[in-house]
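Hi F.,

I've been meaning to write this up properly since the lab meeting, where we talked about keeping a consistent format for the predictions we share between groups. The idea is simple: the sequence comes first, exactly as it goes in, then the structure tokens exactly as they come out, then a line or two of notes. No screenshots and no reformatting. I'm using this chain as the first example so we have something concrete to point to.
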Amino acid sequence: MKVLFVTLDGLGDRPAPELDRKTPLEAAHTPNLNKLASCGITGLLNSFSPGIAPGSDAAHFVLFGYSLDEFPGRGVFEAVGEGLDLNFEEVVLRASFASVAEENGCLKIVSRGIGAEEEVCRQLAKDILDDEIEGVNIRFVYNSKRQGIIFLSGGVSPDITDSDPFCNDLPVIKIQLMLDIKNKKKAEVTAHALNTYLRKVYFKLKDHPINIGRIKRGLPPLNFLLTKWASGRKRLTSFSDKFGFKAAMVASSVLFKGMASEIGMDFIELLYLEDVHKDMKRRLKAASDALNGGYDFVHVHTKVPDEAAHTKNPLFKKEVIEKLDTAFDTILSDFDDDTLIVVTSDHSTPSSGSLIHSGEPVPIVIIGRTVRVDDIKEFGERACLRGGLGRIEGRNLMNIILNLTDRAKYFGSRPVPLDTSHRPSKINPFKI
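Output, unedited:
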């Protein structure tokens, strides 16, 4: 059997007073997702343990069957997704232009620079030079949309904190080494070098003619680089070797492009369309074409519900979910009986309150000819709580998929040198 695996990013939510204490998904009119629920087995999924609020990077990494011990960090995926060369000794971070102001000897974030003019960012980036601080080599590569990648090399460690607090009106965070790490000396050197570098960048940008001109025009200066997601590349077993699938990913962002590259999935890039229905329809069509064209595992991702939740408007998220639902009207007929269909999310994104993501579980439905269909008729957080899958974690999902596609290996058998959960398609025959 083949697999269609759809993640509706940030779909889960919390009850909202303006929705009669329902979540946006529960309040939305979703006849097609409800039909899928009635045709399959449902449950609730936490990518990690209950209560932990993951990002899309680590959540998807775990859903694809990798452990957090293998997780290289989002910075690696971002750098690789941007098409940048990265070796196994370097540390990379995502760096973003922001506007800061001096306050009591510290820097306070005034604006995160979102919507800053592309040409302005590129001009400023040209004057941020490579540096060497106490043996640590540092270079900044600008990409687009006010963002770039910082490369560190020379006995460095990724075990450092972010400088980005992810909010306006908060101070820039001093970069510190993480506790309970093996090589504290490397982390201390890395943190010190990066703090020194960012301080130098601030004084360079503070007096830059472009920023002086912006201040005169009443615009916030782009005078700092906020950093996050320090990462070091790791040698990962490919998804194909790990699970026996020829896999592709239908997605849009550099994050997923980099993740696909690092785990050996082919990447089918689709830019978002403004029309939510047409965009989701196009993604499912691309997945169908890929499954008919030689792939036997295709992941489809949309960020739309997550972005709707970040507006902190539950009514708007409900409307977006309803538009997404209309794209699922023909999913059962578009994919044949030899396709296992999985529809879920990576995490909950509350459309009210102050949290970016939250730790509540998300609904999941699996449809296919090998599935024990339960009695659930609605695709929602509380309805799926009563489903036949029960409560599962992300680390369980790929084994469930292998089992339902008749690919699960008899536990304890060793047909090939690499210990995996799937039955190998090829073995080394004994010769006489």
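Notes:
The chain has two domains: 2-71+236-404, 80-232.
The chain has a mean pLDDT of 95.

If this format works for you, I'll send the rest the same way.

G.
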